[in-house]
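Re-running the complex after MR caught last week's input typo. The corrected sequence lines follow. Everything else is unchanged.
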Amino acid sequence: MPRTAQRILRAVLPWDRETDVLGDLEELHRRRRADSNAAWANLSTTVHALWIAMAFVWLRLREGDVPAPSKLEWLLALRLARKQPLLTTAAVLSLGVGIAVAVVAFTMSEAAGRADLPVEGGEHYVRVDVRDGEGRPVAVTGDMLAALEQGSQTLRHVGGVEVRDANLRFGPGRIEPARIAALTPSTLDHVPMRPRFGRALSPSDAAVGAPPVAVISQSLWQRVFPERERIGDGVRVHIAGVDTELVGVLPDRYQFPAGGDVWLPLSFEQRAEESTGWFAIKAPGASGVAIAAEVSGILSAALPSDHPARTAGSLRVDVRGFTEMPGGATPLLLMGMLVPASVLLVIALNVANLLRARTATRLHELGLRSVLGAPRARLVGQLTLEAAVLALAAAGVGWLLGVRILGWIDAALLERPYWIDFSPQASTAAAAAFCALLITVVCGVQPALRATGRTAGPTGSARFTGFSLGTAGSALMVTQMALSIALLSGALLMARSFQSTTSRQLDLPDDRVLTAQVVVPESAAQATGTAHPMRAIADALREHPEAAAVGTADFLPRHDAASVPIELEGRGPLDLPASRARVSTGFLDALDATVKSGRLLDDRDWTDNGPLAVVVNEPFVERYFGGASPLGVRMRTARSEDQPPGPWLDIVGVVPDLGLSGFSEEYAAGFYEPTTVDRRYFYVAIETRGDPRAFEPLLRDQIDRLDPNFSLSRVELLGAVNGEERAFQAGFGSVMLLLGLFALGLALLGVYSMISMLVTQRRREIGVRLALGATSSAVLAAVLRRAGTTLALGALLGGALGLAALQLQDKMLAARLPATEPWIVPTVVLVFAGCGALACWLPALRALRIAPQEALASD
Amino acid sequence: MVLLAALRLGPDAAYAVSIVDEIEARTARVAQRAAVYVALRRLEQKGLVRTRMGDPLPERGGKARRLVTVEPDGIEAVREAKRAFSSLWGGLSTVLENNP
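Corrected-run output:
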């Protein structure tokens, strides 16, 4: 019979039932062995043992064999916690941190994975994604929508929404950025707008020829018209250049189907944009597969004959819950719950080892109480109660810490779906309570059962078994050590990356340059006729007297510019890629770039057929030319899997490192290429003559006059670019470092406790050996052999895990961190080994100081 | 069913394992061994059965069986149950034939 099954039953069976029940199970196990293979028989027997154990526990509970803890026992448990402040503090803090991590992960996973729309019947809302045979989004016409609404059996309603950023002009020189949401008015039958003032949108507002109207959020209304209390007639604004009447003010909590400041009616009389998002309310019982099949059929039949999708194969329709995260999120969410739960379990098991070590020092007390008649259940109950006191305190600490962390995350993650709420829920408290229960079982019940396990001695009297770590306990200690080393290694790498980004000095006019991201809607690019927006914006702003220099680019300094393979004429493709930023005339002037050699880009370097020259930075020269002058050498982007080689370009100038890499100096080598390809998202940089912040309203006004369809976002000084990401990296790195040090400290505390416990247990044996002439080295070897093996295994496994973690970290993180530095893992392993040796040495010294006569006299 | 199985097996052969085997063989249903332990415990507390330890056996790793003997009160309880079932069964044959 498997030993696990025996241990399970011995832990719960009354002593007078051990023989016959174990005998029954042995008989059944032998039958199973005869009928099937050993592995299956062992598994079946173990499961069977669990069932029988549960039945006997239930019996004992029903029969009152497990008494409720008395007030005195509660007081004793609290007194014990007070008497051992170091152990209590370590246990409560470590468990509290573990619970906090578990609570945060659980709440975030719940919020992200299972949240429904905060509207009536929100769980029935679905997103519908329609693409042609080549995977391109399909533009839906009004006829197609009408066919869907009339012909669908699986959908009760179909609606659309377009969200974009635009400028709100409400007076001369008064521009406010706003998020615009265009919504099908028929949706309001299901998600009614209840404005605070004025009226909601109606279907007639979407009719052809209807005057443009909009409703506005209350917070935007108060910013734009602070002097007005109510909306009256004739309040007009320009939204993306369109003169629009404001007809209503909505409470800020109205955010369906996407967050917005202004709501417009969406009309499908013309062909809708590919960027329109589709959603629907499914009929009761309709499945995603049925909806997709029906929608595909109806839309295919309703496609106009000249619709581009006709020639691109059959339509592909994908249906998913409105709040459902895109494919692949479920494993991530599971990982987000399992990893913290595993961390908490490892912490709890380590604390269990500490508590077992503490219990080992009380074996005499427990034995005496047993001899005086205390049933085993009572002793187990007391030990469990002591663990429960710690668990409850840890749950309280963990819950408070978890709630605080959730608050920070809630404040930091402003860009998230509005239905995701990270505020503490009842489930958060339930998660903390469950953690406390788990800890009580792991740290209290199991060690108590082990400590009070009975074996009949040679005289027939029962005595308590001594404490031993056991294979499982040792394995857990090794696991925790290994995880601590891996965690600390990763944390050190992150701390190094933060240090490299903050210590990296870039010669940039951080306080004199205003930057912004410009977004050009696709329809605007087609309809307004603004050619080459990147150059047009730079040219328009350059004329302003406050602008000293203006340029546009696809990446700003401290962004991680695109990394491209390159080749130099005469040398062929190079092994290491370089960073590339595509810029307009004047961009490098706006950055006040110092010319180290050659010149900056100018109008000679642009043609309608493409760029002619590039400017490289000093890290590029150092990497590819060894410091020699690159002027006159030609280079191009090399052939890659999806791109042919680019044109040959002359290197005409060298500038300092201007931050083509946000985080790592390894990717700092790069070049600036004149842009000839228009983009929908790009950045503008303006070096101003005065205060750059004062230029922001002028910037918005100028962009709006150039083309009201352009929208601005992320308007900030050059020094603040990518600031949130850097701050997050710094914060995350610091937290990881603290957690790593904490985990390592806990692991070392576990080692210290284990050795101390062993010395205490083997005090008499050590005394006898010393009295018989054993040398100090022999005594130390006996004491430290087990710990040394555990430490060595933990260090080896931790080293391997640490290297793997660094490789994984490098791939998973979006930011490009410094290359894995080879010294990190060996250093951490050495520090760990040194501290571990010290943790073993101190209690081992106690063993050497044992006076044989005292040890023999003690009991 | 536990009492009936114990009666069938007799005081020298009735123990938890054989009782479960007997129930499964006679009723063609799976019996939970854990439930049998609970049932035997309750029956013993009510005085309907008595248990004693048998001899150690090699096929059980040298461990003894806990043999079950049905006490007179237990036999009387079985008779009562039989009378009650017979009373309830009375007249149901026609009903069962008419309701397939």
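None of the earlier attempt is carried over here. Chain B touches chain A at residues 15-17, 32-35, 37-38, 41, 53, 57, 59-61, 63-66 (CB under 8 Å). The first helix of chain B runs from residue 2 to 9.
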